[in-house]
Amino acid sequence: MKRIFLLLLMVSTLAAYAQPPVPAKDLSTVNTVTPKKGQKMAFEAAYKVHVAKFHKAEEKMSVYEILTGPHAGSYHIVNNDRSYADFDKERTDATAHSLDLDKTFFPYLEETTNATFRFIDSCSWNPEIKAESFSVNVTHLKQGVSVNDYKTEIARNWRIQKKMANTNP
């Protein structure tokens, strides 16, 4: 009886960690790039040529210019609807793609960083929104922050959002 119970426990545990038959497309890779001074237009032109040459329309890539804050003038290049399996796929044109980036794209950049994020639909409000611009407030709370400090920070963010809503018709 113990062996059967142990076997069932192992099978259920393995099944819980198995990948779904259809991988979830909930990952986004965000590259933050900063063009060199005076190279903004050249960067934009080079990026458009690169995308037209190497990226298919179904890749769902978006570009956002950062307008305010310490990263103003930088861009977020976002590649949406990716799964973990997509990271394992090899590009058939990988060499040509890399050479094109090295010759026509990277020379216009001062800095580039990237990260991958997972979209959580159940925690999102109005995830299908289409807008000209977005207001993104990133708050880094230090470890050991009290609940009162957290409430104060949330209230500050609400005041900022309200002020922005009043200035943007």
Task: Give me a quick take on this structure.
41% of the residues lie in helices and 19% in strands. It contains five helices and four strands.
Gyration radius, in Å: 22 Å
- Biggest pleated sheet: 4 strands, antiparallel
Mean pLDDT across all amino acids: 78
Overall shape: it is: flat
Low-confidence stretches: none
Q: Please, how many helices?
A: 5
Helix content: 40-55%
**N- to C-terminal separation?**
69 Å
Record field, number of beta strands: 4
Q: Strand-and-helix sequence, N→C?
A: HEHEEHHEH
Neighbour order of strands in the largest sheet: 2-3-1-4
Strand content: 15-25%
The computed structural class is alpha+beta
Describe this structure in words.
- The protein starts with a helix and ends with a helix.
- Helix 2 runs antiparallel to helix 4.
- It has a four-stranded antiparallel β-sheet.
- Helix content is 41%, strand content 19%.
- It is α+β, with helices and mostly antiparallel strands and 169 residues long.
- The mean pLDDT is 78.
Primary descriptors:
4-stranded antiparallel sheet, alpha+beta, 169 residues, flat
Show the helix and strand layout.
Layout: H1 2-17, E1 27-35, H2 40-54, E2 61-65, E3 75-82, H3 84-88, H4 94-105, E4 109-118, H5 147-167
Antiparallel strand pairs: 1-3, 1-4, 2-3
Helix pairs in contact: 2-4
